[in-house]
Amino acid sequence: NTNYWLDVQVHGGGSVSPMDGWYSSGSDAVLNAMDSSFLSWGGDTNGCTINGMQITAPMSGPRHIDAYFPASQIAFGPASMSFSGQLYSVIAPQMLTITNTGAGRMTYTVTSDVLWLSAGNSTGSLASGASALLPVQASTRGLVPRTYTGNLIISDPVALNNPQVMPVSLIISRASPMLVQGWGFAGYGQA
Predict the structure, then answer these.
(1) Mapped to the 3 state alphabet, what secondary structure does the chain carry?
(2) Of 95, 112, 101, nearest to 165 (Cα)?
(3) I need a labelling partner for 102 at 20 to 30 A (CA). Which of 7, 13, 86, 108 fits?
(4) What is the pLDDT of residue 13?
């Protein structure tokens, strides 16, 4: 008895049931798109019966079936950020705008590749055309005066352009010297 592999690839933000698997020669694999936003079937569909969100594939050999759903697309601004401040100072946050310019729903995550950089509200979901405004913060804690570089990574596993990277720089200068005034009694060597 011969078995054939059915390879199922999902494109965009949807799912198919069942997924990949082995099927007996001569049997039918019946796949169902599990999201009403389903667009179309593709791949090796010769000899298949397509009925809307369902495809029946006769397993006369190995097959590859594609299922297409609307996908999100990541857009963001500004293109980069630059922070600056003195050692031990608090640096004002800047705002990052994330927009879903694709047709499908976006489920985004924003991460940093350095410890001194972070984004608030770092996970969320956006409908097509919607935007989110996130505060981005840089911290001088534990750093020495110099220029640092890092990245914010904006990701959505089903986005057409996943991931997107925004470069960020941080310039830390030395703290201004403070004037220290003496006090005490002159008789004890203090002035």
Answers:
(1) CCEEEEEEEEECCCCEECCCEEEECCCEEEEEECCCCCCEEEECCCCCEEECCEEEEECCCCEEEEEECCCCCEEEECCCEEEEEECCCCCCCEEEEEEECCCCCEEEEEEECCCCEEECCCEEEECCCCEEEEEEEECCCCCCCCEEEEEEEEECCCCCCCCEEEEEEEEEECCCCCCCCCCCCHHHCCC
(2) 112
(3) 7
(4) 80
Which pTM value belongs to this model?
0.71
pLDDT attached to residue 158: 86
Mean pLDDT confidence for 163-182: 80
Q: What is the pLDDT of residues 124-144, one digit of tens each?
A: 999 999 999 999 999 998 899
